[in-house]
Amino acid sequence: xxxxxxxxxxxxxxxxxxxxxxxxxxxxxxxxxxxxxxxxxxxxxxxxxxxxxxxxxxxxxxxxxxxxxxxxxxxxxxxxxxxxxxxxxxxxxxxxxxxxxxxxxxxxxxxxxxxxxxxxxxxxxxxxxxxxxxxxxxxxxxxxxxxxxxxxxxxx
Length: 156
Ligand SMILES: Cc1cc2nc3c(=O)[nH]c(=O)nc-3n(C[C@H](O)[C@H](O)[C@H](O)COP(=O)(O)O)c2cc1C
What we know:
The chain is of the alpha/beta class. The chain has a single domain (9-148), classed as Flavodoxin domain (Rossmann fold, 3-Layer(aba) Sandwich), CATH 3.40.50.360. 43% of the residues lie in helices and 24% in strands. The chain contains five helices and seven strands. Strands 1, 2, 3, 4, 5, 6 and 7 form a seven-stranded mixed β-sheet that branches. β5, α4 (104-117) and β6 form a beta-alpha-beta unit. The longest helix is centred in the last third of the chain and has 18 residues, at 135-152. It starts with 5 loop residues before the first strand and ends with a helix. The site of flavin mononucleotide has 15 residues, from α1, β3 and β5.
């Protein structure tokens, strides 16, 4: 039996068919590789700061609306930022943004928040912009597997 040592959390806002595909890809990819870690998915509206504090790494999937990350994703940071400040430094993080147009506003805002929390951005964020492209699925799959293996092996 595979022993489970670590846990990563995935804060996923996936209101559309395409973003649900991306979100499922993250979970399916990690689960299918039978790593020695657990992955738990949360809606940004439900996750608590304790969930984050009890994790070994965090992945975030959001959309961009009106030039900013989804209101749902912002709600997570609005509720949890102060509780996490000075308590979660160095937490490995990877995020992706599905953006119909550009994704720049979300990227800028997320980078600022991550810097403020002193989390460790171990992978370049994926900005999946423009018209839907099936290659987005491959990119998300590769990055989430890379993230999970890095956490499992203690590299990140
Ligand atoms: C009301 C609304 C506002 C949006 N604003 C932006 C935006 O400011 N920048 C952007 O890149 N995409 C924007 N989009 C596109 C969404 O990011 C995109 O629809 C979402 O990521 C879902 O992707 P999908 O259509 O491939 O499922 C907007 C979409 C809606 C419905």
